[in-house]
Amino acid sequence: MATAPDMADMPTGTLLQIAPRIGRVLAPNPSPFTYTGTQTYLIGTTDLAVIDPGPEDEAHLGALLAAIGDRPVRAILCTHTHRDHSPAAAPLSAQTGAAVIGCAPLVLDDDGPRADAAFDPTYSPDRILGDGEQVSGEGWTLEALATPGHTSNHLCFALLEENALFTGDHVMGWSTSVISPPDGDMADYMRSMQRLLDRQDAIYYPAHGEPVQNPQRLVRGMMGHRKQREGQIVRFLERNGASQIPAMVAEMYKGVDPRLYSAAGRSVLAHLIDLDGRGIAAAAEDGRWRLR
Q1: Are residues 124 and 246 in the same domain?
Q2: Please, which of 58, 224, 264, 274 could form a disulfide with 186 given CB 3.0 to 4.6 Å?
Q3: If phi over 0 gives left and psi between -120 and 50 gives alpha, with beta otherwise, what is residue 207?
Q4: Residue 1 belongs to a domain
Q5: Are residues 152 and 65 in the same domain?
Q6: In terms of domains, do 141 and 32 share one?
Q7: Whether the predicted model's global pTM rises above the 0.85 cut
Q8: CATH no. for residue 93?
Q9: What pLDDT tens digit does each residue of the chain (292 aa) get?
Q10: 125 in Cβ contact with 100 (< 8 Å)
């Protein structure tokens, strides 16, 4: 994972018009996992959709309302229900009268590594968008694309008029996505990545990081990275026999910020579960993993 840039270069609470139909407001929640923070997107000119309203933060909500002004909001869309993405949906809906739509609600106990990845128990959509369903306003059409992997309920949203894809946390502009079991699923993630690779989107707008100008190349590289990590795990188990995940992380993530070790361990676990499902690895009762 990359080091976050100087926050003076990434102002929060300011509407940046990054394309004719697309505005962006950065939430004030930078961290080793959110990079500079969660980016909320405003789609449209005369009427709007809001994608990923962000965390429960009064300053961010105020910034969104200021950016919206007197324009009607047709829909508030959430890519998934982690706490840095969806909690502002309810108060923004109360202020604007817009329906909350998008991903399905999901709350479960997760022993994942980061507080901002916990699920949002307040999320209660007025409408759940299925794969391929659309919502539209004046001059814009958003189509839902089911992309499970980071979470089982994750959606991306395609802006048809711009040939652009809002990728939430499925593809980020600065790092690979954390896949944290039990809900995060590596096999689902790889299938979703293949689905994106088969598309012809011209640009990605992720929830964290800058726009991705050559998305197919990035997706291909991210898939290759996951395959390389899988190969590292298999070779580690071939050399060392039955082993626990912390030992794998210590060898495979040398030079990485130690604050990210727990997240790395979750991704290693996701790979091991995938290898188990394919008959390549298996878990022992003592928490060690071995090749079959």
Answers
A1: no
A2: 274
A3: alpha
A4: no
A5: yes
A6: yes
A7: yes
A8: 3.60.15.10
A9: 444 444 445 689 999 999 999 999 999 999 877 889 999 999 999 999 999 999 999 999 999 999 999 999 999 999 999 999 999 999 999 999 999 999 999 877 655 554 345 899 999 999 999 999 999 999 999 999 999 999 999 999 999 999 999 999 999 988 889 899 989 999 999 999 999 999 999 999 999 999 999 999 999 999 999 999 999 999 999 999 999 999 999 999 988 888 888 889 999 999 999 999 999 999 988 999 999 9
A10: yes
Q: Dihedral, CA atoms, 190, 109, 90, 25, nearest 10 degrees?
A: -50
Q: Hunting for tokens 């926050």 — which residue is that?
A: 7
Does 284 lie in the same domain as 263?
A: yes
Same domain, 200 and 128: yes
Range of the domain at 265: 229-291
Non-local (6+) Cβ contacts of 6 within 8 A are none
Integer Cα distance of 10 and 22 in angstroms: 17
Identify the H or E element spanning 215.
helix 215-240
> In the chain, how many domains are there?
2
In angstroms, the CA 262 to CA 245 distance is: 10
Parallel, antiparallel or unpaired: strands 127-128 and 99-102: parallel
Residues 219 and 239 in one domain: no
Block residue for tokens 């706490």: 83
What is the distance between the terminal CA atoms of the chain, rounded to a whole angstrom? Answer: 31
Q: Are residues 109 and 51 in the same domain?
A: yes
Instruction: Look at strands 203-206 and 164-168 and give their pairing.
Output: parallel
Question: What is the rounded CA–CA span in Å between residue 290 and residue 166?
Answer: 38
Instruction: Report which secondary-structure segment, H or E, holds 274.
Output: helix 261-277
Q: Exposed/middle/buried for 249, CB within 10 Å: 0-12, 13-18, 19+?
A: buried
